[in-house]
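Standup notes, structure subgroup. Blocker cleared on the 1-deoxynojirimycin input:
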Amino acid sequence: MSRIIKPTIITMLFLVGFGCNTTKTPSHNKGISKSNSPFDAKIDSLMNLMTLQEKIGQTVMYSGDLTVTGPVVSNNNQKYVKEGAVGAMLNVFSAKATRDLQKIAVEDTRLGIPLLFGYDVIHGFKTIFPINLGLAASWDLEDIKKGSRIAAQEASAEGIHWTFAPMVDISRDPRWGRISESAGEDVYLASKIGKAYVEGFQGDDLSKHNTILATAKHFVGYGAAQAGREYHTVNMGQDELWNVYLPPFKATVDAGVETFMTAFNELNGVPATGNKYIFRNILKDKWNFKGFVVTDYFATNELVMHGYAKDRKEATKLAMEAGVDQDMMSNANHEYLEELVNEGQVDIELINDACRRILLTKYKLGLFDDPYRYSDKQREKEVIYKPEFLEAARQSAAMASVLLKNDDTSLPLNKTQTIALIGPLVKDKENIIGNWAAEGDRKGKAISIHQGIQEYLEDSKIVFAKGCDIEGNDESGFNAAIQAAKTADKVVMILGENYKMSGEAASRSSIKLPGSQTNLIKAIRKAVPNKKIVLVIMNGRPLDLSEEDILADAILETWFPGTSGGYGVADVLFGAYNPSAKLPVTFPRTIGQIPIYYNMKRAGRPNHNDNPNERYSSNYIDVRNSPLYAFGHGLSYTNYEYSDITLSSTTISFSDTLSVSATITNTGDYDGYEVVQLYIHDKVGSLTRPVKELKGFKKVFIKKGETITVNFDLTVEDLKYYNADLKFGVEPGEFQIAIKGTSDFDFKHSFKLE
Ligand code: NOJ
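Run returned:
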């Protein structure tokens, strides 16, 4: 046990890895270094030709007006581009628009340096995949990679070089609207998923015309906004920062991500966009990141609103010194940087470094060879909405749908029965593609759930009633819905949020179904007490479904499933795809439990048996501690029985690999995929450890009646964490371990590290 190990030994053990003390005062030029890339000589000769203004120009990004993703300010894009004062643009897309603007940069400026075109390609470009939280629910890294490859192919054909994704902010507060854009609450899962996105967008060769730069965002802590309120304050200790919020970003650096974006929030009193500690010390120095950092939209200016800079000029200086290379939309670098350098307030080496980093990405993309290679009308026509892309989106939608509950095998549906299809989202094509749906079509191209069900069921067997709207108190449609329910054999209700209720600037203070929807399901339950009600929900966050859990016989969580969502969801409803998704985030019983996540700390007075009546224990007096649906939970149409695990040894040394396996039998009537999860618990640490930690998972196919063995190899690397001195390492002691299909279990096995 770590307590009886001498501190000297602990210190030695912790010296394994890259962690070291980071509390020293950061210097302005930490992390400045050449990339050692094959393009260095070219960059050197180009930079020798560049004036200070032209170098500053590379550090400036403006927005076009094809989409609005932040406060609108009038700017003179074309004029600035012509002056060589702009390095990148966002919100300009299509082969034509990007080609036209690129032409100005290349032909009308002194050095003809091409522009970078960036855009929010978050879960698809035209062919929209399920929202990111849904993609995370598939736990299918290959599918996530494939989806982002497809997004890159479509976006690149429209002139986009760079996506502002993936968002790898750990998200543990369902009130926060941007949880929809995340991979959920878990460090390990989010890290793997972040890597998969980067590999998908960037491919194996950035010089190919169909690969795009990825962005790890938002560095760092954005998901921990107080009270789930958008853009709000973040205060966290080093344990949480280093062991929870930083690791997914480190995983993207290891995967070769080319750019980082700053977060809007302050972190422990210092706004991220002016935060040297995170950009210079951690990202550029410790992690040796060679790509470039862009601010979030307007974020340099916001240093003033935060109360961190007295004016925009000081904000410009602070951001540059913090290690931020490009200014998105603040018009700050453009306006003040030259003056700051001339006054000796900003070291020119900072600008050289920023400019060099930005130019490097342009070389890597091949833009100096052919600045128009991405703006290709022919390719645009060929790749957008390719049938195989739409088919891939259908499969992703099926893989993302989590079966939360299925009493008495209410699902799958039977093709011979009459179904009452009730709810405001039955025929919806507008919301189904989710909030940040890039250029996705909210009308014709999206497939509603109604259309999906029509693939399986004749129209004569479908009775439709809308019942109510998503929002508002109008219950005048209830009677028609009740009649529909009465005439059908089974009821399927499609309820949820609208797409504007999640995503950026969409925090909610309630996480219940909005409007009269819960009343609608109550009314139907009352009218047809003996009929099966299947609830299908579409939403961008974990909802409080405590009432619905009692009212419905089955619940299928489909998130916002995307362009082919209606087909994919119907595939699950009718059993063509046996659900395999597992929650990447906890669903609370009530908003009062937030934040709630599976890998919490235990506290000095742990509550036992989930008992609200246990006095003087860490609990609530009015609700159990357990969630409604746990992280990792997700049912199937079949059953998987897990055997006890087998360990290769119950004691391992620091150089050993522990082999742990379980046999899993498919005891039901369907073949299926199961996401097998490996959890550990480090029983005693010099910093307290979470009650459970995911350390591995495998998605395996098991035929009905079949038994398979799933094996994981665990090394000391998997057990490491940052201690109080920010040393990354591992302490000897006892670890509990389990292989399960959910995080909701009690450990029975353990091993010792000696
Ligand atoms: C603000 C968002 O926070 C960020 O994620 C996005 O990439 C930018 N706007 C650009 O649209």
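Discussed briefly. The longest strand covers residues 672-682.
Next: hand off to the docking folks.
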